[in-house]
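dumping these here so i dont lose them again. two proteins, back to back, each one seq then structure tokens. dont judge the mess
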Amino acid sequence: MGEVAVPTYNATIYVGLKDRASGLSATAESVLQYLQGYVCTYGRDTPAGCVTVTSMKFVYVDGFEDGFAIGFINYPRFPSTP
């Protein structure tokens, strides 16, 4: 397979797992399952062909919660426009 070059761009969405109203938290596994479904559904036609998922903790006044940084990148296997 030959080399493929595509313009680089990325976007990052930060997501906390705690529901504000109930205080309950989503699981990391449920988020990963959702993202897998998303990229399988929309990934061929959008920048969602490949996403990165980085675990993190958000620390704020009066609390903290687990969450993720979800990155969208222009990956050469699934090239797209911004």
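---- next one ----
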Amino acid sequence: MVNCGGECVLPRPFSLHWANRDDIALFFAALERGKGTQWLANRKEGDAVKLFGPLGNNGFSISPRAKRLLVVAGGNGIAPLCFLAQQAVSGKCSVTLLLGAAVGPLYTERPENLLPQEIALVTATEDGSSGHKGLITDLLPDYVDWADQIFACGPASMYRVMAQMPKLKNKPVQVSLEVRMGCGRGVCYGCTVKTKQGLKQVCQDGPVFDLDDVIWEELDY
């Protein structure tokens, strides 16, 4: 959770994009009406930024038996998946990344691209400016059989499509939820979602859930 100055009262949640022993990196879009992201994007080298974490209970978990990982990123969902791909490659897993966005340029076309060179990359944009013209979920069924595990991060609309795919019904699929969080400590209940196990707080019980555990029709974002 990052305390963004200016007019922002509440901190903003960000995924860990990259890390080593001494440093971490965040990746985000500076939204036109996003007071927090605009403030953060205007920081200069040497500026101090207050943050607290790590928070949550569940991160992505790679099974020791999994050797082929399919990673699905929708838009800014690439943020935590880059770190996951780095860890997977270092663990000798084969990784295929399906990367989609509304328009280009995609993350892989930017200077800050930190993805391992060893991954296989498949892209899609809704306007056809890069890769397949359409949604990244259009391509997903072609890669499901290859994968031992599937990981995803993106908008709820992408997850709703995935939840209806017959091919994913018997596959282990972990998804990271992108929801607004008020406090990050489980006090405000602003990030509560309905699951088959009852009400869960994304900031405390997540942010990663099994795809088939979330009641997607009850998700209101």
